Amino acid sequence: IKLIKKIENNILTFGTFDHVHEWHENFLNQAKKFWDHLITVVATDKNVEKFKWEKPKYKLEKRIKHVKKLKISNEVIWWEESSPLKCIHRFNPKVVCLWYDKVWFYKKLKKYIKKNHLDTEVVRMKPYKEKKYKSSLLKK
């Protein structure tokens, strides 16, 4: 964490990454265009259950391995805290890139950044073949 904090202009992404597919690759490549250092935070099994109300198909270690295999993110980490918002405060990224459909988290994050006087921009990425690669469709 100390090394990551020393790097200026981090980009931060979040995700479950349970079914790693082309959309994930596209999402991370879009995020990587903002700056050179991309940090991807993979949700713990406990947080997946908390936020998605279901267990992930793959355990955390395997999901991290899948994201690392894409070779896009400079850092692939997991976050043990119950709130991903604390992760923003901890790393103080220049940009946080979110999935296009995470409107509720986008609003919550914008409020958190403003309240804590952080110099962080929040950007929602463009969808990629959403009729084909939406997680809910892939599960069927």
How would you concisely characterize the structure shown here?
The protein is α/β, with parallel strands linked by helices and 140 residues long. The protein is 46% helix and 19% strand. The protein is built from eight helices and five strands.
Task: Please explain how this structure is put together.
The protein has 140 residues and is of the alpha/beta class. Strands 3-2-1-4-5 form a 5-stranded parallel sheet, with helices on both faces. Helix 6 links the parallel strand 4 and strand 5. It is globular, with a radius of gyration of 14 Å. The N and C termini lie far apart (38 Å).
Q: What share of the residues does DSSP label as strand, in percent? A: 15-25%
Mean of residue pLDDT values: 83
Strand order of the largest sheet: 3-2-1-4-5
- Report helical residue fraction: 40-55%
Largest sheet: 5 strands, parallel
SS class: alpha/beta
